[in-house]
Amino acid sequence: MLKKTAILLLTIHSFLTSAQVGIGTTAPSPSSILELNSTKQTFVPPRMTNVQMLAIPNPLVGSVVYNLSDDALYMRTNLGWENISRTSNPTISINKNFPGVDTVISTADNSYTNFPLNNSDVISITSSVFTIIGNGQIQINEAGTFMINAAFSVENIPSGNRKFVVGIYKNGTLIGYPTRGTIVLSTTDTWGSSGTLVENFTAGDVVTFRYVLNNGGTPLDALNFNIGMTKLK
Asked: Could you give the CA distance from residue 113 to residue 195 in angstroms, rounded to a whole number?
């Protein structure tokens, strides 16, 4: 009896280590551990929202899910979740116009202030890659190289010379200036500036857009604020 049991266990072990599983076929390929075959039914991976996908603890590289938020198939790689059905680069665009008197522009000399843009000002967003977490703050959910654009304009900048800066921060540390310089006007006028830089980010990094416009602390009327990011690779 003991000998028969040993032979049975050996046979089961051999089957588990070398056999293939076929669904819809009785002859799966020797190169396949699992082979599906049907002309009437489909293979459906786990379906979930972007929030649920990002909350999966320690997903294995090679994991696949269907992201309901983006209507796209995602695979887990060493860089994070990658949209494998993506036909265009992930982007985020946030914009707001401020017509009329608003005194939105903070103007304490040499003082950085966050861009006054948040979720309510989104024009478009690839939600699996970008998450807005506060005024002028975006969390990166997928590692890569990103092009960053920032712009703002003022309706009533006074005459004279005035310092301006747009600074980009990564996890609280200043990493670059899309645009900065000195405004020189002979009379009160409308003014604006924009600029671009490229930077590498890892999943979980927080990007903060901040500006400086010296005017001795007297607020000015905003005309427009704009943030744009595109993942290049």
From this structure: 17
